[in-house]
């Protein structure tokens, strides 16, 4: 069967409708059409950035350092450690992070302070590993009556190890103890190489792993650059030097306090943004790569704790829908922050333990007093008992114009033309949590 090549004009017409990942592959494999592909507008539905790569419409691009060994005698634990790791490796096998504070042209600096390099090669860490290793071997010796010498120097005893680890391992199975011993021996290998001035029996490569529902792809190149430089090259190859703004429906950045590698002079036009623990300076820095036509955002998801400074930037205040996912371990009150937000739709995914039904009743009262526009709404996940108490108290207010017989719904007059409709519904059958919602609606009462 003969293959008819796609002509230039036909390809030009086809490219805008191709999946972005297919376009990337064609552009990389056929350099002669790379310039054409860069001139055609690129549209992406879901784009997610991570520290070592990105995800485009479900296809994941991950970079790591792969260690290859021809030695058949390498232990299974060491073989597992040869899988790609998201850190650079030095000559002895220690994981390192060069360039962790290096901001290249085009990059988005999301750091809150200077980042610390990995400290996994200290003498103290070696002593702790050796102490734990010898403690586990002693436990096995008591069960199996055997002894084994090692080549590590005598180390002082750390009381915190005996309190937290030895008691735990004495109750564990032999298999788990052996697995932990193998893991410790692998972690101690770099210390042995440094002490003996030797190198691990590995050849290091930078590995690109591409995974999607339809296929998987692995590519390796010589380890002659740092991992952060490889990430920069990957993202710049995909998104750099394009003639037009890249349109993205949803952007997710699943890290904070780090540097987002990004190409020079590239802009995104986005509709929704999902971020982790950002503050006002992070939003300001990120806005450099976002086209002004993106604002106000259709939706902003913030995974964070209740700190007022996180909600002061105009991007946060202007988002039409603001979704807050409370991830803080310390539960601070949310209502003082929520009172000052004027987004059209607010959604709080987790109730603060410090806020009772009375706090929400007062919060609703502020909506009645401030007369927000029709269509404005607030939704929060909370215990059903809290929502029931809120509606019981609202039922007694003089502004009430309608109440459902099952007390799941109350409507209160705001002014002559609008009302505030308050209701709750279960998240799942037999679930103790529910969704409490109030929405400003056009009044149906004459």
From TrEMBL:
Superkingdom of the organism of origin: Eukaryota
Pfam families for the chain: DUF3557
Cross-referenced InterPro entries: DUF3557
PANTHER family: F-BOX C PROTEIN-RELATED (PTHR31379:SF1), F-BOX C PROTEIN-RELATED-RELATED (PTHR31379)
The protein, known as: Uncharacterized protein
Species: Caenorhabditis remanei
């Amino acid at each position: 069967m003969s293959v008819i090549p796609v002509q230039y004009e036909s390809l030009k017409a086809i490219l805008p409708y191709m999946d972005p990942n297919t376009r990337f592959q064609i552009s990389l494999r056929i350099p002669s059409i790379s310039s054409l592909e860069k001139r055609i507008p690129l549209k992406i539905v879901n784009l997610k950035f991570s520290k070592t790569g990105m995800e485009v419409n479900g296809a994941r691009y991950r970079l790591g350092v792969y260690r290859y060994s021809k030695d058949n005698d390498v232990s299974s634990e060491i073989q597992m450690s040869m899988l790609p790791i998201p850190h650079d490796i030095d000559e002895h096998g220690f994981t390192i992070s060069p360039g962790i504070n290096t901001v290249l042209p085009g990059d988005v600096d999301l750091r809150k302070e200077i980042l610390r390099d990995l400290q996994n090669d200290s003498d103290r860490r070696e002593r702790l590993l050796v102490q734990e290793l010898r403690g586990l071997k002693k436990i096995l010796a008591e069960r199996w009556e055997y002894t084994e010498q090692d080549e590590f120097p005598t180390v002082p005893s750390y009381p915190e190890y005996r309190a937290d680890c030895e008691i735990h391992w004495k109750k564990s199975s032999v298999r788990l103890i052996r697995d932990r011993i193998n893991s410790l021996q692998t972690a101690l290998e770099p210390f042995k190489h440094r002490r003996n001035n030797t190198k691990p029996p590995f050849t290091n490569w930078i590995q690109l792993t591409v995974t999607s529902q339809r296929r998987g792809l692995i590519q390796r190149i010589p380890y002659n650059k740092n991992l952060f430089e490889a990430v920069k090259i990957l993202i710049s190859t995909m998104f750099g030097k394009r003639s037009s703004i890249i349109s993205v429906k949803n952007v997710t950045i699943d890290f904070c306090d780090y540097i987002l590698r990004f190409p020079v002079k590239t802009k995104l036009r986005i509709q929704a943004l999902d971020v982790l623990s950002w503050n006002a300076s992070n939003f300001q820095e990120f806005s450099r790569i976002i086209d002004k036509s993106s604002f106000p955002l259709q939706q902003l998801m913030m995974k964070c704790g209740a700190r007022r400074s996180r909600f002061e930037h105009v991007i946060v205040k202007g988002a039409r829908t603001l979704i807050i996912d409370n991830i803080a371990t310390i539960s601070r009150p949310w209502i003082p922050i929520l009172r000052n937000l004027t987004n059209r739709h607010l959604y709080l995914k987790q109730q603060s333990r410090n806020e009772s039904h009375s706090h929400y009743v007062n919060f609703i009262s502020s909506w009645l007093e401030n007369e927000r526009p029709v269509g404005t709404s607030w939704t929060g996940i909370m215990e059903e008992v809290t929502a029931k108490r809120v509606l019981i108290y609202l039922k007694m207010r003089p502004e009430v114009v309608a109440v459902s017989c099952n007390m799941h719904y109350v409507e209160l007059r705001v002014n002559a033309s609008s009302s505030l409709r308050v209701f709750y519904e279960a998240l799942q059958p037999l679930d103790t949590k529910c969704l409490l919602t109030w929405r400003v609606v056009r009044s149906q009462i004459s």
